[in-house]
Specification:
Largest sheet: 14 strands, parallel
Number of strands: 39
CATH class of the largest domain: Alpha Beta
Strand content: 25-35%
Bound molecules: uridine-diphosphate-N-acetylglucosamine, magnesium ion
Radius of gyration: 31 Å
CATH topology of the largest domain: Spore Coat Polysaccharide Biosynthesis Protein SpsA, Chain A
Length: 468
Amino acid sequence: MTDRAPVDFQALILAAGMGTRMRSETVKVLHEVLGKPMIGHVVDTALAAGAQRVVSVLGHQRERVQAWLESHRQADKLCYAVQHEQLGTAHAVLAAQAFFADGPKYTVILSGDVPNLDVDTLRSFVDEAVASVAPLTVMTAILDDARHYGRIVRNDAGQVTAIVEFRDASPAQRELKEFNAGIYVARTEFLARHLPALCAAPSTNAQKEFYLTDLVALAAAESHAHGYVVSEVELVQGVNNRQDLAARVEFARCRLNAHWMDQGVTLIDPARTIIEADVALAQDVILYPDVHLRGQSRIGAGSVIENGCVLLDAVVGQNVVLKAYCYITEAQIDDDASIGPFVHLRPEADIGKGCKIGNFVEIKKTRMDDGSKANHLTYLGDAHIGEGANVGAGTITCNYDGKNKHRTTIGKRAFIGSNTALVAPVRIGDGAYVGAGSVITNDVPDEALGVARGRQKNIEGWASGKGK
Ligand code: UD1
Ligand code: MG
C-alpha cells in the first residue's frame, strides 16, 4: 500500500499510573472507549502503524492490565516492563530500558490514556520524525486554553527548545497555546544515553518527578528537537477524569459512525447509535435509533436492526430483520430470518435461514433449523428444532430438573400446540403433532399426535342450577 520503506520502530506505552482523578477501583487505562480498554486502542494503533513490538510499562494493577493484553490477538508482539513506583514519565520509560539495547533504531512513546490517536497520524508523525533527523520529535497541538498540559516553548526561529509543565510554568508560559500531547519519537540510542542520568539527578520540579519532557531541552542542546503539530486536537487529548472520558468516547463514537456511513451503512439517527470499536458491518445495513452493537458483533448486508436492540458478540447474516428491542448475546442468526420484537437470544442460540422468532421468545443453546418458527411467548433451551417445525405460543422446554440440564428434540415439520410443556429429555418425531396444553414427558413418534392433558367434561344445565 505504501511506497516508502517501513520505518524500523518499537512502541512504548506508558500505563503504570493509577489515574486517581478517575476515582475508580479500576486502573485508568482499563476504562473503556467503545467497548475496548483505552490501552487496547493505543496498542492497536501502534501495531497497525507498523510497530515491530509494543512494550507496555505497567505498575498499578499490572496483573489485570497484562491479563487483558495477553488475550490480544497479536499478543506475540506485546512485551511488558514494570515500574514499581511511579516516579514520573522519564522514570517510566527508563523502566523499559531492557528493550533499548537490542531494540529497533526508533522508539515511539505513547500514553495509555490517549485513546483516539489514529493510524494515519501516527504513521505520518513517525515518517516526519525520521526525516527531521532530530534525536527527539514531540507531537503537539493547539488549544486556546491548553489547561494543565505541558507547554511547548519555541525560540524566535520557531524551533522547540523546551517543554514546561503547567505547574512549573510562568504566567507568560501558561498563555502559550501549543501543548505537549505526550507522544514522542526518539532515537532509541538517545533514550539509552540520557535517561539514566536524568533519573539520577534530584528532581527540582513542582511535582518532584522525573519528567520525560526534560529530554526535549537535552535534544535541543545536543542538536535539535522537532515539533510535529497535529491539526485535529481531539486526536491527542487524554483522559484524566470521567468527564474527559465521556468527551473522548463521544469523539470516537462520531468518528466511527461516520466511517460506517461512508461504508454504506444507514444510521437513521447517528447521535443515538453506538457501534463499538471491533464491530463489523456490511453494506446496506440499516440501524434505527438506540441500537447498541457491542463486542465482536458482525452484521451481514441488507440487515435491518430496529430501535433499542442490543447485540453483544452476535453474528447476523444477510437481510435479517431484527424488530425493536431484542437483546442478543453470543448468538448466531442466518440469512433472511425475522426476529422480534422483544426477543432474548442467549449464548449458543443458532437461528437458521428464514426462521421466524416472534415477540417474548427466549432462546439459549438451541439450534433452530432453516424455516422453523417460534412466534410467541416461548422458552427454548438446550433444544434442536427441525426444519420447518412450528412451535406454538407458550411452549416451554422444561430443560432443568433442579440439578441437570436435559435436551429437547423437535423433528422436521413438527407442530407443537400452544401452551405445551416439553419435559426434557424428550423427542418429538418428524411430522408429529402435540395437542395444545399438553405436558409431554414421553417421546412422540414420527407423524403421531401426542396429547397429554385432562379431558374436557361438560356439565349440561349447570348454569341454571347455580346458586340454588
Ligand atoms: C504528561 C506530560 C505533559 C503532557 C501530558 C499529555 C510529563 C512530565 N508531562 O502530563 O507535558 O501535556 O502528559 O497528556 O510527561 N505514567 C507512568 N509512570 C509514571 C507517571 C506516568 O506510567 O511514573 C503514565 C501514566 O499512567 C499515563 C501517562 O504516563 O498513562 C501520562 O501520565 P500523566 O500523569 O497523566 O501525565 P500528565 O500530567 O498528563
Ligand atoms: Mg495525563
